[in-house]
Specification:
Blueprint: E1 2-4, E2 8-15, E3 18-25, H1 33-43, H2 46-63, E4 85-87, H3 89-96, H4 98-106, H5 116-129, E5 136-139, E6 155-159, E7 162-166, E8 170-175, E9 178-185, H6 191-213, E10 217-222, E11 227-232, H7 236-250, H8 254-263
Parallel strand pairs: 4-7, 9-10
Antiparallel strand pairs: 1-2, 2-3, 3-11, 5-8, 6-7, 8-9, 10-11
Helix pairs in contact: 1-2, 3-4, 3-6, 4-8, 6-7
Bound molecules: iron/sulfur cluster.
Length: 283
Amino acid sequence: MTYGTTDFEIRQEECCNATVYLVYPNPFMLEGSTGRRLRRSRRGSPKSSRERIQQWLYRFLKETSFEPFLSLKASWRRGGQEGQWFWARTLDDLASCPLRAYYSLVQAKGSIPYTIAGFEFQRKAIRLLKTLEYFEAFADPGIRGFRTSSEGLSVCASFGEIRLCGRPDFVGLFSNPFVTWVVEVVQTSDWRKTLQRSIYRLDFYAQGIFELFGLPISLSIFAPEALIWIVLEDHKWAIELEKRVEELNGMLDFEIALKRAKRVSNRPCQSCAYKRLCPLSKE
Ligand code: SF4
């Protein structure tokens, strides 16, 4: 379904049990004055490109008539980073490969394969997001190995004996609409794949940020080719997330993780940070 606006359009799609809204320039406007401006922006300097994306983001939030999703009703308990805890990023590893989750858990980190270009994209996107009209923003532009200082928000929750902690890339508190916006910045050409891999982590962030501020949450992925706005169904994801965290805990056992990984076809071994350690990458 496509909703026309003046300069931009919003397309609605279903993916991974979530409703997704994509924002992109209206092709019919390309012949008008706005179109000329957009065309110039596309050819133009990084500054004009930044302005164009900024305009997207601004209008997306200001003009949309969709309601952001309200918090899930999970039994959320906050906890510190002491004792046994996992990074929320390891949920993404589990979605890719159980052995990858094992290596990430024992090394207490998430293995998302960052590159310098990816890091630069993330930094620029966060700089853009920070130019919007928020009343408070928290951003985490650093990543492992490059991290300098972070102004990001940490969220931690207990799931039984297991604690999960994470830090969203960007959290903005807006007054119009009155909403908290949680954004994950990724350098990907396939937002569906990204959403499939990261949806549990995004859900976890959304719940944690709601716990902190009590405002409705809007959830987005910001990629080079697409800005998507995600609406999750209430309740369902809360239960799924708990199950997924339990599953993650099981991956602390190498033999179990190995057995599970052997059943997974289509392993993304080329981009895996653990391919030198992993016995399966040599098979
Ligand atoms: S190298 Fe392949 S099989 Fe091994 S942990 Fe990485 S993704 Fe999994």
